[in-house]
Design goal:
Layout (H helix, E strand, L loop, with lengths): L3 E2 L5 H11 L4 H5 L1 H9 L7 E8 L2 E9 L8 H8 L1 H10 L13 H13 L19 E8 L8 H15 L4 E7 L3 H9 L3 E5 L3 E7 L5
Parallel strand pairs: 4-5
Antiparallel strand pairs: 1-2, 2-3, 3-4, 5-7, 6-7
Helix pairs in contact: 1-3
Amino acid sequence: MLPKSSQNQDLPDIADCQIACFPNSLATKLGKAYVIKTLDWFLCSPNRFLFHLTENGKVVGYCGGFVPAKRGDGSSSGMLQHAFGKAVKSLLFKPWLLFHPEVVPQYPFIWRNIKGKLTGKVKPAKSASGSPTAFKPYAGLVVIGVHPEYRGTGIAQKLMAEFERLAASYHQYELVLSVKKDNARAIKAYTNYGWKIKEEQVRTFVLHKELTGDS
């Protein structure tokens, strides 16, 4: 079982895997069409990548990452804008999701990106000092999941190894991801793979991992 670079025709099956992995997430509640559109974001630029593993024709694991091209080139804002239409359509039918615990703390962020969608301009995030955050190249791990029926079978290790290989192919040896503070299982898994907590934010930890140049 080797990782495969994902194509448009693979997205519905990858979406099924993501929904199985995260049944209570906001993305899942917004619907499969929304999940597919967020995954499509990875296929729209050469600085992004998405790959998956299959067994017996079923997607059992997937992973997506990107290499920011400039300051303000964020995965969360980019995916939100890319799937904006699908999100709005879903919210029209499920307005109660506006009060979902993943949404309420993000109202300022969402409003900023709604304005960005309407105007075509998105302001870069500000640091605590009020100045734009300094840009430093890195490879960001954005999404990763292993189907619940296949956890503990070595799939996660294959996904992480492929992510590191692709990051190195972009000549990026600083890896970055963020994870919710209450996701103890994921934090333990990442630290077992050599990631270290480098920054604490309000609701998340930011983890880093450094690769050697010959990785």
